[in-house]
């Protein structure tokens, strides 16, 4: 990896260089009931809109790579015959300006499922390959447990990664494209002082992660506690609304539906992101439901993320961003659930 | 200056070949429903032929695999192939009308064009089973995925030793493929059928499938030779009872094969609908040996 620094006021120049492209970044979309700013990823039209000092976005970046609804194919229907057309929906290169390590890690995890190995998903892969990613270091929030999940830092999956040193940006460069672009800025080699400040900043940041999950032997514990009554208790609280999956940067499950247009001359096949918390997720034809109650569905979600994915890819399908806990209508958070499963009791 | 000129990595023209490139994802064969036979009140047997003759001959599958069948605009679903693998792209699918897609399918005429993608999933290791005794156990619709390996076995009957088929249905009117029983028996197969509820014409045994299996195991002295394989297909409730009996009769778990049912929306390990823990039923299944099933939570 190459390390460089550039003066803080050059960030706008970097923005200007990239502004000719479709540029997505964090911006303010409103305030919550406590008056706190709410951030979201959206298309940026001027540098002043871009807020790379954001805390955390309500939704993840997922909608740009895995749209909530997407047409898989369309059909032209005529007299007992049909023609299938597939539009992979690949967009032009997009610049994603200001992704936190957890969000970049989330994309890396999604890549493992969706870009390989047996049937790569072309809808996802196409969009993913046309992404130019500028990461930024974040300020830990009270609900982030990314440190426990090992996703508080990121080594791959971005083009350049910025860390604010005060008057300078410390930049890690991962791609030739990023290097070319940075050559237009007055970049310099980091000095010893810059190194020292970087290390000091990282130390300060590390000390701010307050929320933790004990992951040790979690896979085995989830197996052992599969029949634990703790799940029933959490199931009583869970409303099976699927909000957690909606905001989760790594939830990728979907359902497929087909529709005939009103003129009966065309039809579309559409995929829609789904959630394993929704009641009919594991229902099969004829009405048998493999996970009929909310407890078994909630358990399955944890089991898939922290046990199943671990078995398949040697890592959990959770980046510890804490969005699910923030969004949950019943106030269920991952650290609480995992902790209660370990202790075999549910907090009052 | 345009710095970012990443190519559109997947040009549309790639959507013509199968496998090995990304475009296979939404590719489907055009296939024609050439014949429809009503087997019972709810099940029909559909003979489906891939339209393009080259594609038809190249289409190969292994017994136990499934295809995704699509009626454009109505829906798509996974169905076990119920015909002989040597028939290539002339497929038989036995389908019960229970949902939107299958109810619609039960009303379409011959000649309807459907989309077929696949084959997907794992298969029964019929070649490993050669020179062995076989016990095929089916409950209800379970006879459907069992028919492809059965055809495979019948076509090479001399390579297998004793073959027992134990088949149970709710009542005589729900028995599938009745017209083929005589043919199976001619291949020196011991076919035993049991129903839960008899009607006035029924002369065979009445009860649960486990009763027939019990007799079969008692005849073997409750000790199946290690040279025996079992294939079990049926409703989830049947697996535990049947497989436990087989294990009690000393049949090793890895010699019992089951085919699991899940709803699949893609068949390609992406939609997660068929996921059991770490396992995608569509990729690692639907055929599993019983040891793998025991090792998965909530599998049956």
TrEMBL record, chain A:
Where the record annotates domain 4Fe-4S ferredoxin-type, the positions are: 227-259, 309-338
From the Swiss-Prot or TrEMBL record, what is one GO molecular function term?
metal ion binding
- Tell me which positions the record assigns to the signal sequence: none
UniProt keyword Iron-sulfur present: yes
Alphabetically sorted, this entry's keywords are:
Iron, Iron-sulfur, Metal-binding
One Pfam family of this chain: Fer4_22
InterPro entries reported in the protein's UniProt record:
4Fe4S_Fe-S-bd (IPR017896), 4Fe4S_Fe_S_CS (IPR017900), Helical_ferredxn (IPR009051)
| Official protein name in the record | 4Fe-4S ferredoxin-type domain-containing protein
What organism does the UniProt record list as the source? Desulfocapsa sulfexigens (strain DSM 10523 / SB164P1)
Upper classification of the source organism reads:
Bacteria, Pseudomonadati, Thermodesulfobacteriota, Desulfobulbia, Desulfobulbales
From TrEMBL, chain B:
Manner of cofactor binding, per the entry note: Binds 1 [2Fe-2S] cluster per subunit.
Tell me the GO BP annotations in alphabetical order.
pyrimidine nucleotide biosynthetic process
Q: Name one GO molecular function term.
A: oxidoreductase activity
Residues that bind [2Fe-2S] cluster:
266, 271, 274, 282
Q: Which residues form the FAD-binding FR-type domain?
A: 26-126
* Signal peptide positions (record): none
Source organism superkingdom: Bacteria
Q: Which UniProt keywords apply?
A: 2Fe-2S, Iron, Iron-sulfur, Metal-binding
Entry's InterPro entries? Cbr1-like_FAD-bd_dom (IPR008333), Cyt_c3_hydrogenase_gsu (IPR012165), Dihydroorotate_DH_Fe-S-bd (IPR019480), FAD-bd_FR_type (IPR017927), FNR_nucleotide-bd (IPR039261), OxRdtase_FAD/NAD-bd (IPR001433), PyrK_electron_transfer (IPR050353), Riboflavin_synthase-like_b-brl (IPR017938)
The cofactor(s) it depends on are:
[2Fe-2S] cluster
- Transmembrane stretches in the record are none
Q: What is this protein called?
A: 2-polyprenylphenol hydroxylase-like oxidoreductase
Q: Which organism is it from?
A: Desulfocapsa sulfexigens (strain DSM 10523 / SB164P1)
Q: List the top taxonomic levels of the source.
A: Bacteria, Pseudomonadati, Thermodesulfobacteriota, Desulfobulbia, Desulfobulbales
